[in-house]
Amino acid sequence: MSGERTMRAMSQEPGNRSSADRRVSSRIRHEVVQLILDRKLRAGSPLPTETELMAALGASRNSVREALKALQALDIVDIRHGYGMYVGRASLAPLIDGLTFRTLTQHDDEAAALGEILQVRQVLEEGLIGRVVPLLGEPDLDRLDAVVTGMETAGRSGLVFPELDREFHELLYQPLGNALLPQLLGAFWSVFHQVSRRGTPTPPSLTAARHRAIVTALRARDVEGAKGALGEHFRGVGVTG
Question: Cβ(128)–Cβ(173) under 8 Å?
């Protein structure tokens, strides 16, 4: 009987240890993040060594390493072997990977998957364009115009221009001075184009024409016209942005 209890206990211990380890790792992750925030560290700032973290957090080396690897995957910690550990850039790369994976695995219908991404992006941009219209100067409009001219040139040759598309939308909101916006828009752009590679692209000339309509409304300082042109652009998207 005692042998059976021993075997049963042994079979349960790995699962118990695993669950406990996950809790410890989660605690350490939160405490490392809090340390970064409390010390007001910026990207590139050095972090305490593993040994110092073990002592400060009361955790084993394995638990600390597991937590640090998880934070490295989130770009919160930058581990440079032979040099030390530093605060990471905290980019949106994990968000891009997660959204791409979710979109590709949770939808059998590609059009529905792309539609979800476009809907979020459209709501975001239509809310922003009204704010940026009064801030756009002539140099800003000239830069947008030049990008659209590049689109039109490529479109006449039947060439797609995803990078020009991305540049247009990033330039459009620069006057807002919000550093997070280009990262967030870029994340949605990257996810959309990774997912849409398997489809049939919208004719490049049509995409260029829709962007031209946006610039025309912007030059006229027509907020509602700009929103309408932007909405038309998103509603007409096939599988390119």
Answer: yes
